[in-house]
Amino acid sequence: MTKLPETLTLEALSATPWHVENHNPYVRGWQDWQSFTVRDAHNHCLAIVGDVDRATAPFNFQNASIMAEAAALLIALRRCKEIAEDGSRPYSARNELIRDHVTPILCRMELLLKYCPQTRQEEKR
Question: pLDDT tens digits for 85-110?
Fold first, then answer.
């Protein structure tokens, strides 16, 4: 088993933002089984999603999209921690700044969870 570093630094992350690309539109010949890659800003493949099990096929794009948000989420959470610990700002100002950092990513994640399976099915029609 690979030992993970104690802390993940932003320098250790691949170039952001990450994005999703269609890897294989017909895995093993199945028209309803697609796989996707998660790629960094230099177009390096970080992960292939959905190439092994057909059972997850309806959610492969959704799962890859959520993985692609991981770097942005880590950056936003670290910024929120800095803001929360900044005693020079009033409490209400800190809460507003935290909300401003978290809300966009949370909205993207909620949209992915809510709409991606429908969207993928509609694209096939």
Answer: 888 888 888 888 888 878 887 888 78
User: Considering only CA atoms, which of 31, 69, 64 is closest in space to residue 50?
Assistant: 64
What is the model's pTM?
0.68
φ, ψ for residue 105 (rounded to 5)?
-70, -45
Owning domain of residue 113: 58-125
Q: What is the DSSP letter of 19?
A: E
Residue 47 lies inside a defined structural domain of this protein: no
Total structural domains in the chain? 1
- The helix or strand, by DSSP H or E, that contains position 79, with its residue range, turns out to be helix 70-85
What three-state secondary structure class fits 39?
strand
**81's tokens:** 């921690």
Determine contact, residues 78/24, Cβ cutoff 8 Å: no
Residue 32 corresponds to which tokens in the numbers above?
A: 């309803």
Cβ neighbours of residue 111 under 8 Å, at least 6 residues apart? none
